[in-house]
């Protein structure tokens, strides 16, 4: 590759980084700080007079959490995904949540950012706003997905969860609730959570009936909150009670077409990113242009086949959420009967 072609690709790469940083932040000073070079050296890299070294590209990719294929926009069948390796340690969950928090912080900082979420399961963010559901999910993930050895023979015990996990999770929810989002749910979106609670009850992992019922009631409250935000087209946050009229930032669609994997498309101005579920609650991420554009086409096509139930379609919205609540009630009745 000649220097002109390399310089062109470098300009595209740095433009992508510029799209990812806060509009109030200068790319020059950002590069200077991250690469530990003078502002003059940073300017030369932006103008393409000095080519980035392999080490500098790696540093920038790691810092902005983008994959190397974001640097090369060549037409290729190869798509690179970034993901955090799974380790059977409780601190790994906390580190994962901190990464999610950092990602959402960057998303929130970009003007007009937008999330489209095709939901095979209830978006995990909602659990974080309901303590009993968050407690159950964190314990379930650590014991049954991460297979943390010290939890293998443990009964359900919220005290085994690091309190910092709840603090970070709450921040994650508030950030998600402040970003404009479109969600696509199906009749089965709630089912995995129902099955998880039912499995723990039937396996004797809950210590008693009251614990299982408390989690079920928390799930009902969570569903009712989501129904309320769908009615108003506004996500629920701790700031909704302020004097300023909240901005409508939520669209919920009902799809009769089954969604087989959680898929999230994030639009950040000229940049897009796709997150796919991986090992239950973990995600893989790519910013590959071709893959992101194809995902956007698929999501837009899916939306055309769905029914908008936020803000409109009151009857359909009621029927949808009523069916979900009845599913929880069936589990509650089953637990009570036993």
Which characteristics define this entry?
338 residues, 7-stranded mixed β-sheet, 7 strands, 12 helices, alpha/beta, 2 domains, 53% helix, 11% strand
Summarize the structure.
This protein has twelve helices and seven strands.
Structure write-up:
This protein is an alpha/beta fold and 338 residues long. It folds into 2 domains: 3-64; 90-337, no CATH class. Helix content is 53%, strand content 11%. The chain has helices at residues 3-20, 27-35, 39-47, 54-64, 90-109, 124-127, 131-145, 163-178, 191-202, 209-232, 289-304, 314-337; strands at residues 114-118, 180-185, 250-254, 263-268, 271-278, 282-286, 307-308. It has a 7-stranded mixed beta sheet, sandwiched between helices. A hairpin with a 3-residue loop joins strand 5 (271-278) and strand 6. Helix 9 runs antiparallel to helix 10 (209-232) and helix 10 packs antiparallel against helix 12. The longest helix has 24 residues, at 209-232. The radius of gyration is 22 Å and the shape is globular. The mean pLDDT is 90.
